[in-house]
Amino acid sequence: MSVEFLQYLFSGVTIGATYALVGLGFAIIYNASHVINFAQGEFIMIGSMATVSFLAMGMPMPVAILLAVALAVVTGMLLQKFAVAPAKNADVVTIIIITIGASILLRGLAQVFWGKSFHALPAFSGNEPINIAGATIVPQNLWVLGVTLVIVAAVSWFFTKTIIGKAILATSHNADAAKLVGINTNMILLFAFGLSALLGAVAGIIVAPITTTSYEVGIMLGLKGFVAAVLGGLGSGVGAIVGGLILGIAEAMAAGYISSDYKDAVPFVIILFILFFMPSGLFGSRGTERV
Amino acid sequence: MLKRVAIKGAMALAVSAALISGVQAADTIKIGSFLAVTGPASFLGDPELKTLQMYVDKINAEGGLLGKQVELVHYDTAGNAQKARTFVKRLIESDNVDLIVGGSTSGATLAVIPLVESAKVPFISLAGAVAIVDPVKKWVFKTPHTDRMAAEKIFEDMKSRGFKKVALISGTGGFGRSGRAQATQVIGKYGLELVADETYGPKDTDMTAQLTKIKSTAGVDAILNFGFGQGPAIVTKNYKQLGIDLPLYQSHGVASKKFIELAGNASEGVRLPAAALLLAEQLPDSSAQKPVVVKYKTEYEQKYNSEVSTFGGHAYDGLMLAVNAIKKAGSTDKEKVRAAIESTKNYVGTGGVVNMSAEDHLGLDLSAFKILEIRNGDWTLVK
Amino acid sequence: MFEKLNSPRTGGLLALILAVLILPLFFQNTFHYDVAIHVAISATVAISLNLLVGYAGQISLGHAGFFGVGAYSSAILTGWDFGWSPITAMLVASLAVGVLALVVSGPILRLKGHYLAMATLGLGIIIAIVITTEDWLTGGPDGLSVEPLTIFGLSPQGEAQWYWVFCVVLIASVWLSLNLIDSPVGRAMRAVHGSEVAAQVAGVDTTYFKTLIFVMSAMFASLMGSLSAHYSGFVTPDIAGFHHSIELITMVVLGGMASVFGAITGAVILTLLPQMLTGLEDWEMVIFGLILMLTMIFMPKGLVPTLLTKFRRGEA
What we know:
The structure holds three protein chains of three kinds. By secondary structure, chain A is an all-alpha fold. Chain A contains eleven helices and two strands. Chain A is globular, with a radius of gyration of 19 Å. By secondary structure, chain B is of the alpha/beta class. In chain B, the strands form four sheets. Chain B has a five-stranded parallel beta sheet with strand order 2-1-3-4-5, with helices on both faces. In chain B, strands 7-6-8-9 form a four-stranded parallel beta sheet. Chain B has a three-stranded antiparallel beta sheet with strand order 10-13-14. The model of chain B is unreliable at 21-25 (pLDDT under 50). Chain C has one domain (2-271): ABC transporter involved in vitamin B12 uptake, BtuC (Orthogonal Bundle). Chain C is mainly alpha-helical. Helices cover 75% and strands 1% of the residues of chain C. Chain C is globular. Classes of the chains: A mainly alpha, B alpha/beta, C mainly alpha. At the A-C interface, helix 4, helix 9 and helix 11 of A face helix 6, helix 12 and helix 14 of C.
């Protein structure tokens, strides 16, 4: 394995892990409500921009992060309660437009209150490069991978072992039946949006030291997360994670070996190709474990 | 029913038309502006608008221009060239502005040039591309140094350090594309050779792949990055992460403290061409620019409590060129103002000393650019 | 005769013609004409997109891609390298887009719901990336200037003349769409949106109709792209971009799906709103997002169908 390949792999896995977390957020909401939330990217933005702004107020990093995640979760729940829930019987496109409206609104608010400039979060544990078999990474890459792993493990434990998690799964399979057995489906939907906002915010915060952040950062990352979720098969958590990693690695390899000009087109070429042969994505219709 | 619908529709449209038509104020001098205040180029448009607003207010507080108040009519293009076209039509046709200072990005500027040319309205652009003033258009001027000059200045410095082979990495936005084209065109003049040519998207968050490719290219002496926004900061961080041991040059697109803040200590030793504005107090007292740039810097930073950038400086220069020309013309007659801008001589601005002519609608030469190096988190003049 | 006038079909068309004729009386300058032209361009594209989304039930989040291909083909083919006549360039571009749409429609239209949205979105973004990247041909992000339009020796000059060109195109497309909707094809289309399975059982070749509408609306978008490129005299990659696609679909949904006049209303609102909100400066995005959300939450069927229902109920 050449050093270059290893380097491309590292950068692909790091960015892919971010896509995976965002994709997982899409999957959770889709699972619970069959809604694609185009405002998902804004949770990334809220997470990272709020951390920046709380830090600037003089709060210590852990407090700032906790508050930022809490802010994103509350925003997610408000979004569900006041924008998505009232329109639950509307067409697919209508709900898409509502969430697009919400994302414009959130971006607008961020721009008014947090300004338009770019910000960098300080790295969690320094910037000293680490050498691995000739390739170099910074400690933040490890943070991204570590946090992603922990979150994925926690989420899968949550859905398989806890009552609320099982209730969400039940609701996604059959909302009416879930109601009959006494599940408060409204609460479940609220919870799903909150959880998905949490994932987005965490993703935004852990990559911000590497990628910088601004009020517009959610557009591109949100879009890539959507691609990851569809690639894996909507509603499949495993699929979203695999999809995210595939995208990240493919982008890095394309930039390294093919053409950096067309790197951004690669995810979309892949998704078209996959959908041509598997119209429900990689893990979509096979009834594998749904997260 | 049909009649009612038709009447209602016509009325609604008429009301809308009235709403979006400018109110004709009687006796003011109207300066129109369209800037990318939001969107990916907002770090250009934001300080530009702040600068224009601050100085228009100041002019008015000091009694206005030719005894009249100055009115700034501004629209946000969000960096979209199509929007810019509509807004410029609105400025010219509906707001009846006397002249236009604006156009943060080259794309927006180039898209509106046919409009201002046919409407015969003086237009001072704040965008970089050399194509804006080369060939010269009768009604179009610009204040920032061109991307070609930036490339030339950088290559000049590289040559003087004895470098031979250059690796280029550039953004795929308008600024990066245009800079890349100019760099490839002029590089031969300096006896340098381009051995790698990588690009990244304006919203990319990781450039290690491209830089790894450059790192493994044999014989590279120096790396040049043409881009703006957060991209160059990420390039700089990734360059540090990969432990690349080659001198890194950035373009004038990063000429704001924000870049140093974003890139952190990875930016130590990075060189770039920039206007004297960044040095301000560090300039020698003999410099004619010193009083101007120190004054602008202090005023801007006091009012907005944020670091000055050369982009706001371009807007300052644009506005001052316009104001001086209107004073000189003694009226807002468009042809007279245009002629007055064209005959600008020895205007000392934040970008340099401007000497315009019928053949040169920029009026700056290479000496207006300084090569700076980032040391201890601040700009220092090289040589 | 009067009954016919009162049918929404003819009545609406006449109202539109009337509005188009009356409007210029209120225009004070060419900027107003320019806004009206932008409305007409967007409305025409939105109408064709509405056939696809509203009647055939197929989401497209990539329509700006087709619009962009049309615009850029015209810009390049009529430019100095090729020197084609604008009309040939326009038709060839539209045909090429039609072929492209036909080729991708096979696999794409098999997809459903969000998968279809994703595929069309991807297609549009790929087109936009190609346009931005191949700068030797397209001028890259800075764009390309376009030759003026000449058809049979006639060349529209200035906004006032172009206004009539685009209004004629708009009216023609409304007339075409209304006829299409009332034809057997139209009934088949509505069946496809209603229930694809039911339509198939009833013997409607749903694939054929979906493909037909997809190709047609792509070609329409391309034609409008060409025309608008000639009108502007300048094209930039923005017109092919993701945001433009979203804008077009928003017009359709906001105005009202499965309503020709809804698409026009959507185009009017989305074109005028940004011009009216400019005074809000920093708050512009907030208000715009809020209006979009509230409208869709309270009128999920879109403005025109919701208001029409209310209106009829009030009359009854």
